[in-house]
Amino acid sequence: MRAMKIPTLTIAGLAVLSLAQASGTIAQQIPSAIANDPAPTKDFPPTMDSPDILSHGARLNAIIYLAAGENPHGTVLLMHGFPGNEQNLDLAYVIRRAGWNVLFPHYRGSWGSAGTFSFSNALEDTQTALDFARDPENVKKYRIDTKKIVLIGHSMGGLMVSNTGARNPDVAGVCMISAWNLGAFILRPNDAKALNTFHTASPRLAGSTPEGLIDEAKQNGSKWNYVDYAPDLKTRPVLVIESNDGLAPDNKTFADALRKAGDTKVTETHYDTDHVYSDKRIALQTAIVNWLQTIAK
């Protein structure tokens, strides 16, 4: 019996099909950076460094991933969540392969950084990291294009980058991945289960207690509702990525607020997955790299 010839799909084709099925939206083109290393570069290869970033007297444990090539690169400031168990370093590598530098710091009191953790300190640390990327000496050393500095934050990091982006109009764009709206959250009625995140995170964060973190959030709740930042971000590209983690309503409210404020560069994407995108990492990488490419033009 003659063997039947079965049509085949390329790996890229399968990936595009998978994205279409996963998101229920038009499939996005898979960037070459997802699966391909950059061409060899003898004089300016991709590399990494561990710079000293001092935030209010304390050294932040930070890494910068440098893209290949002699010319200045767009640079992403990548901020993790609370306490930062998921650090999204797969995003750092794919973003670097796409031609961007990635600066990844840890907040004070977290994951080897000196000092004490607090939400207020984390906001200061995010600003400090941005200032580091704009410092003329670092711009030269790390080949940073200061006109293309983008902030990306996951969970609590989404609050950090939206707040910092709102206060720094020269930031080229902001991406929020399942952003935790701490201010709105803490001012709602919450049961013990909802507040458990403070109890599980605090032991990993130096100098903090669950009670202290909750009290700090309550005192600053009215200032830490990221929906209020929409008017200050309305002129810039903003990528809002959502999942099935209970945070999507706040994410959608923020995206709607941006549109109502007049932002015509809002991109909103929802994935049928958990808070850390366990089974949608390729989809997440694709959405972010494609969005960055629109800023790079």
Task: Give your account of this protein's structure.
Strand 7, helix 5 (156-167) and strand 8 form a beta-alpha-beta unit. Residues 1-27 have low confidence and may be disordered. The protein has helices spanning 11-23, 89-97, 119-134, 136-141, 156-167, 182-186, 192-201, 210-220, 230-233, 248-261, 281-296; strands at residues 47-49, 53-55, 58-60, 62-66, 73-79, 101-105, 144-154, 173-177, 238-242, 266-270. Helix 2 (89-97) packs across helix 11 (281-296), helix 3 packs across helix 5 (156-167) and helix 7 packs across helix 8 (210-220). The protein has an eight-stranded mixed beta sheet with strand order 1-4-6-5-7-8-9-10, sandwiched between helices. It has a two-stranded antiparallel ribbon with strand order 2-3. The protein has 297 residues and is α/β, with parallel strands linked by helices. It starts with 10 loop residues before the first helix and ends with a helix. It is built from eleven helices and ten strands.
**Strand tally:** 10
List low-confidence stretches.
1-27
The figure for the number of domains is 1
| Rg value | 20 Å
> Largest beta sheet: what is the strand line-up?
1-4-6-5-7-8-9-10
Distance between the termini: 55 Å
**Helix count, DSSP H or I runs of 4 or more residues:** 11
Largest sheet: 8 strands, mixed
At the fourth level of CATH, the homologous superfamily is Alpha/Beta hydrolase fold, catalytic domain
